[in-house]
């Protein structure tokens, strides 16, 4: 079995580790990420803020791995903010991976991110999983996390206000 090979690491600079602490070095951006590949599987982690300024960097880091038939597992557990630009990246990744026979799975989105995904109806499009292990297993078997685990990833919205 081949070892995980990084495509690229860190937006903190070419010689700094992607494991840098938040605000650790001068000039370190608000998003740190790591992308690793093994065969048709790409596992990426994002830590920090995904916004208009940081989304292009993550997209560039993911692009070598988002090829025909690859399954992308994106761990968003440590995202502290996600703007419309981040949602756009999720949508683009989903469309591209699905069109080429692969898939995209978001790992453990926070309650706030799940609410935003719900509000813009992306919760009905994007697949999620509770952890990386489940996401990898589900990606490689082509199953949906909700169907596999019995989890309902969609959070209910309150009804209309009482009059």
Structural notes for this entry:
This protein is of the alpha/beta class and 163 residues long. It has a domain at 31-142: Transcription Regulator spoIIAA, CATH 3.30.750. 29% of the residues lie in helices and 26% in strands. It is built from five helices and six strands. The chain has helices at residues 55-62, 84-99, 111-119, 132-141, 145-149, and strands at 5-9, 31-38, 41-50, 71-82, 103-107, 127-129. A six-stranded mixed beta sheet has the order 1-2-3-4-5-6. Helix 3 links the parallel strand 5 and strand 6 (127-129). The longest helix is centred in the middle third of the chain and has 16 residues, at 84-99. The chain is globular and about 30 Å long. The model is unreliable at 1-27 and 145-163 (pLDDT under 50).
Write the layout of secondary structure elements.
Layout (H helix, E strand, L loop, with lengths): L4 E5 L21 E8 L2 E10 L4 H8 L8 E12 L1 H16 L3 E5 L3 H9 L7 E3 L2 H10 L3 H5 L14
Parallel strand pairs: 3-4, 4-5, 5-6
Antiparallel strand pairs: 1-2, 2-3
Protein name: Anti-sigma factor antagonist
InterPro entries: Anti-sigma_ant, STAS_dom, STAS_dom_sf
Family: Belongs to the anti-sigma-factor antagonist family.
């Amino acid at each position: 079995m081949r070892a995980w090979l990084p495509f690229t690491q860190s937006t903190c600079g070419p010689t700094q580790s992607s494991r840098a602490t938040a605000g650790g070095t001068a000039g370190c951006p608000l998003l740190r990420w790591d992308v690793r590949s093994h065969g048709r599987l790409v596992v990426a982690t994002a830590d920090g803020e995904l916004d208009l300024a940081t989304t292009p960097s993550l997209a560039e880091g993911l692009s070598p791995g988002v090829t025909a038939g690859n399954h992308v597992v994106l761990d968003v557990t440590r995202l502290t903010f996600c703007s419309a630009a981040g949602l756009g990246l999720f949508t683009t990744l989903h469309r591209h991976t699905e069109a080429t026979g692969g898939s995209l799975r978001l790992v453990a989105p926070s309650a706030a991110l799940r609410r935003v995904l719900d509000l813009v109806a992306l919760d009905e499009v994007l697949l999620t999983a509770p952890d990386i292990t489940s996401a990898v297993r589900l990606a490689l078997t082509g199953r949906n996390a909700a169907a596999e685990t019995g989890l309902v990833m969609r959070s209910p919205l309150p009804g209309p206000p009482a009059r």
